[in-house]
Write a structure and sequence with these properties.
Largest sheet: 5 strands, mixed
Radius of gyration: 21 Å
Bound molecules: zinc ion
Strand order of the largest sheet: 4-3-5-6-7
Helix content: 40-55%
Number of strands: 7
Structural class: alpha/beta
Order of helices and strands: HHHEEEHEHEHEHE
Strand content: 5-15%
Mean pLDDT: 91
Length: 199
């Protein structure tokens, strides 16, 4: 591609930076965007713009939100006596799709990973403790991923919360150890939630 197609080259370069997209795929996507109706291509650009300009973390639970609060924290129908602790917004979305949990969430925005230099201070544990201290929750469900780091994070958080009079449970081990909540199917997640056990 020569001077005349600088815009195309720029698009190919940007697409090629996405995870899993090599040079060939980036070119294919760029030419696809040139062929589809202009409205479709611009809708993609607009969706990217909106997600970066309008989406932020909920100031209460750290889920993704388009205002100060996420849709779950703003929903008066949610059960405010239960709190489910997850690593990432993606995990929360997987659990929501299982459709059996009506309580609130807290997103840690990561897991404790000493080998990657991620300690408890880099997560949202302080805010979680403050939420539990308010005393409205009867149960805190640990729903970190069933990995060594996820389990370690759960253990750390449950120790920190042990000073409060709240029941701490965790998901049943329906999910194969090492698998990630994000990829578990709905039925397995629903079973893991309904069969949760005392920590
Ligand atoms: Zn929220």
């Amino acid at each position: 591609m020569g001077e005349a197609s600088g815009a195309v080259e720029q698009l190919v370069e940007q697409l090629g930076r996405l995870p899993g997209i090599g040079r060939k795929s980036a070119e294919r996507l760029a030419f696809h965007l040139l062929r589809v109706p202009q409205g479709d291509a611009l809708a993609l650009a607009e969706a990217v713009r909106r997600v970066r300009e309008d989406v932020r973390y909920c100031e209460i639970c750290f889920h993704l939100a388009e205002g100060p609060k996420c849709t779950i924290c703003s929903d008066p129908q949610r059960d405010r006596s239960r709190l489910c602790v997850v690593e990432q917004p993606r995990d929360l979305m997987s659990l929501e799709q299982a459709g059996v949990y009506g309580g609130l969430y807290h997103v840690l925005l990561g897991r404790i990973a000493p080998l990657d230099g991620i300690g408890p201070d880099q997560l949202t544990i302080d805010v979680l403790v403050e939420r539990v201290r308010q005393g409205e929750f009867r149960e805190v469900i640990m729903a970190t991923n069933p990995t060594v780091e996820g389990d370690g994070t759960s253990l750390f958080v449950s120790n920190v919360l042990s000073e409060f009079s709240v029941e701490i449970t965790r998901l049943a081990r329906g999910i194969t150890a090492g698998s990630v909540l994000e990829y578990a199917n709905k039925e397995i997640l629903a079973d893991a939630l309904t069969g949760r056990q005392k920590f």
